[in-house]
Amino acid sequence: MHLMYFTEQPMSAYSEQAGLDFGATALMFPNTQFDPVEGSRLYNNYIEQYMLAEEVGIDGIMLNEHHNAPFCMQAKANIFAGLLAGMTKKVKIVMLGNPLPLAENPIRLAEELAMIDMISKGRLVSGFVRGGGQEQLAAGVNPAFNRERFEEAHELIVRAWTQPGPFRFEGTHYQQRVVNPWAVPLQKPYPRVWIPGVISKETIIWAAQQRYPYIALNTSIEQTKKIWELYDKTAAEIGYASGPENRGYLIQVHISDNEEKAIENARQFRWMQGEFTGLAHPVWSTPSGYGSPSNRRAFVEFASGRAANPRGIASFEQQMADLRIIAGTPTTVVAKLKRILEETRPGILALWGNDGRVSQEDSLTCIRLMGQEVFPAIREIAKQLDLKSPFEANAPVHLNYSNDLKASRIAAAE
Amino acid sequence: MAAVQWTDSRVEVAGATLHLSRAGEGKPVLVLHHETGTLDRLPFYEALASRFDVLLPHHPGYSRSPRPDWMRSVRDVAVVYRGLLSELQVRDVALVGLGFGGWIAAEMASMAPADVSRLVLVGPMGIKPSQGDILDLAITGYIDYARAGFHDQKAFDRVYGAEPSTDQLEMWDICREMSFRIAWKPYMYSQTLPHLLAAVRAPALVVWGEDDRIVPSSAAKRYLEALPNARLQTIAGCGHCVDMEQPDTLAKLIIDFIGRE
Predict the structure, then answer these.
(1) Which of B172, B180, B185 to mutate to test the interface with A (most CBs of A within 10 A)?
(2) From A295, which residue of chain B is nearest by alpha-carbon distance?
(3) Which ipTM did the prediction report?
(4) Model pLDDT for residues A247-304, shown as the tens digit of each residue
(5) Do B170 and A288 touch (CB under 8 A)?
(6) Confidence of residue A326 (pLDDT cuts 50, 70, 90)
(7) Interchain CB contact of A301 with B (< 8 Å)
(8) Residues of A with CB below 8 A from B139's CB?
(9) Residue A376 pLDDT more than 80?
(10) What is the spatial distance between Cα B138 and Cα A23, in angstroms, rounded to a whole number?
(11) CA distance B27 to A351
(12) Domains along chain B?
């Protein structure tokens, strides 16, 4: 089991009332509300949190990035990854992930990630994402080519990491005439790639086709099971048996030394009015061409106020009852997480510990209890359930490095 | 006035499949619709078809024409339409471009200046306005965007209904996706078109709704500067979609303009 700490790095020091008055807290919410003095304080708070996470024995720190919104103030995850590469000694630096379609030159990403891998002495996990719809608009990147750019940038980065340079890459969206980066990853064949996601079936299938672990982001137990069903089916078609080493799960969990305080702080998981990414016009979060064509009809109905959000927004109490938010003392939290582990069998688990306006003191308490009490207990449960991480299972980095594919499938592929 | 008879067909041309509606007799007039796609029949089309041989293709990837995945620019659309005219052996055509269709018409005129009898551009996109920006589809809701094309919201209701159908919303999303595919950056204009238009000698009529909230009217001045033989006609109390909001006024203007020898 690989156990991680995650925070969205909320930019909590903005006027909530200003957001409500404006009617949106994403994309177009004016950055006159962003106070860099508070920004400086918060960035340094997050560094302190990550350093404590390492100190208390947490396996990995999960990083991500978003743009134009207070719900996440990391505008470039590789900056924090670079910091952690130099400042920490043991934790895995788990990018979940770099939004590939936003890159105009994916080779720069390949270089940055290679640098992070070398500086950290091989502790990088390089997850990749499509980026949210709003990210495309914030970056001025065409949402209609999002998935094509994702797949092509991935291909280019993996080739830059594995194929001797110089070589030439002539793709549909990327053309690089001289690929020859003088920075290559320390880990061979290349750093592990994990793929986080929420709803897109296409992404689950793609991850399974690559044999990359898929990290389900705060999905319900039922949704998570459906994701693994699809992943396992795809894996079986390709010719390998997927298991816990292919499965990751991120869940909102706040831990405290008393139950009431834990629940009070856990309410902050809904500080963005119940939407992770803040209030936004639906066409900002799902611009045309970004979503799956099969969801088009349901989406336009939602976007025009004729139907509820297909993703659904449950109340805090309902989310607690459904185990999508867990809060309490270590004993309470471990018991609930045990049920999730039994039902969904992941080999990678990330706890999204603190959000919104939870104080730095309470955030640090949460991380300490996570590392010292919750994770040791989870490791024991994982052993009993035989939930191995990709590291423990020594899983291949990519399908191409598999040596256990069913022979008939290999023959068919050739 | 007798109702005009429309013929709908599918035409394969230059790597695209086009839905083409055609009606009427007389001088050939190619009508190019908005980025919101088009309804099959509209009073404006009927009025033109009562006087001219009207060709109304649905842009590739819009409304009834399937999406060619390869297409990357508005100039590609213009080339496809040049191919269409060639296939149909239609020469000396008058181009009537509505909004986004105006951009396509201007591109077509720049490609074959000698093969344009008249050019009518109604609130055309395609040139960067000197003041203000073209309204961004990507951050505007489907109905809000479509309504922004009208000064008089009752006119919108007459065309689409006060509550447009879900089929219509879905179609707007499909059209929007195609607009992103071919006009994303720079958004809804070309940096080279103003220079290329200098070769267009055909008489041009630039029409602008006085209350155009989609394309700032500062773009009109730039079109007049770019086109050697153009004049501007402003329509009072009208938004961007002059063809749907004041169909009779616009049809009369165009009939006078094209009909003149």
Answers:
(1) B180
(2) B170
(3) 0.95
(4) 999 999 999 999 999 999 999 999 887 777 788 889 999 999 999 888 899 899 999 8
(5) no
(6) very high
(7) yes
(8) 27-28, 137, 281, 283-284
(9) yes
(10) 18
(11) 71
(12) 7-256 (3.40.50.1820)
| Strand pairing category for A175-179 and A167-170 | antiparallel
Please choose, from the candidates B256, B258, B111, the residue with its C-alpha nearest in 3D space to the C-alpha of residue B193.
B111
Count CA within 13 A, CB hemisphere, residue A155.
16
Q: State what percent of residues in chain B have pLDDT above 90.
A: 97
Dihedral, CA atoms, B30, B36, B40, B43, nearest 10 degrees?
Answer: -70
Tens of pLDDT, residue by residue over B46-62, are 999 999 999 999 999 99
Q: Tokens representing A363?
A: 């955030």
Domain ranges of chain A: 2-413
Q: Which residues of B touch A292 (CB under 8 A)?
A: none
B74, B78, B83, B88: CA torsion to nearest 10: 130
Residue B223 Cα distances to B67, B102, B125, B159, B227, angstroms: 30, 11, 10, 29, 6
Are A142 and B139 inside 8 Å of each other by CB? no
Contact of A104 with chain B, judged by CB distance below 8 Å, is answered with no
Cβ within 8 Å, pair A304-B141: yes
For residues A256 and A328, the answer to whether their CB atoms sit within 8 Å is: yes
Spatial separation of the C-alpha atoms in residues B90 and B24, rounded to whole Å: 14
Condensed to tens digits (0 to 9), the pLDDT of residues B229-244 reads: 999 999 999 999 999 9
CA B180, chain centre distance (Å):
17
CATH superfamily placement of domain A2-413: Luciferase-like domain (3.20.20.30)
pLDDT at A279 (0 to 100): 85
